[in-house]
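Re-run with default settings, no changes from the original entry. Doing this only to confirm the output is reproducible before filing.
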Amino acid sequence: MKQTTIKFVNKNEEEHQFAIVLRKNVSEYFKVNNLSTKGNLTLAMQTIVMISLYLAPFILILTIPMNGAMAILMTVLMGIGVAGVGMCVMHDAIHGSFSHKVWLNKLFGGTMYLLGSNVFNWKMQHNIFHHAYTNIEGIDEDIASRGPIRLCENAPLKKIHRYQYIHAFFFYSLLTLSKMVRDFTQLAAYNRTGVTRQHKVDPAREYTKMVIVKVVYLALIIGLPLVFTSFVWWQVLLGFLTMHLVAGGILSTIFQMAHVVEGTEQPMPDEKGIIHHNWAVHELRTTSDFARDNRLLNWYVGGLNFQIEHHLFPNISHVHYRNISRIVERTAIEYGLEYNLKPSFINALGSHVRRLKELGKE
């Protein structure tokens, strides 16, 4: 992550007007319909279901004798639940869009610890660097190219990237596992560059808290099955890995289908650190929606298939994205701007694969 200053400068007055009119149109929607911009009963039900989908199979493993195949099935369900908690609960809460009550956002933002990760790191990586500087190489860590995966056209190209459209999905599944480990170096980098203190967080205290939380997480998720079940260590470890591979695969794929697809741009600032677009227009050009009318998918992925709306209005809960997406699309078209919408999950997945293939070549 480069420490630099990026400025977004209006290319023309039309872009400035687009941002103003869009905010007005969306605000009017909530006012006319007398709606809160935060979560509602739908989000409450999602929270119950996703946390239960994660914890209920784990409790069953600990309390009911079962064979290895059944236990693996339980860990697959846990992985689906882990991803659901991340997308539907934690994501909204850490953005402050779960509730108007700060303590509720903080409480459910803490579900990040159920993924074995760190809240502060997520706030910095996602809320700050990804949302403010979407798809900008060297700043947006969410498209950082590592090892066998190249997610940005401005990153160095290696021979191994040629076939990344084939092997990428295996490495996607390692997301939550690698995040557990990478949290240490990531927080160390934030401490070293002054990011931690800049956000009024004590570096030593945050690092200590992170270590303690991870130890407790591993003691519970691995230690309890070793103590209360008949499974041996390698079986418990296999279940742990299965859960994380399922969760990582889902989370990575859903995210990349909104940012690394055909039609999304990866602009770089000029020598003065300027992006020659209004920030709202930049977000519109670097994100994509998909499967807008697939209600089941929208429910499970916590509105992450509406990344355009999420990036433009991160403080609005995802339960409203489907309705305001048509307002955003209509306003964008009115100002001659492209609204990148993939009609289905399969269409978006195919677009992502094709984009991976493009990024694997000169």
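The first strand starts at residue 7 and ends at 8. The two ends are 24 Å apart (CA to CA).
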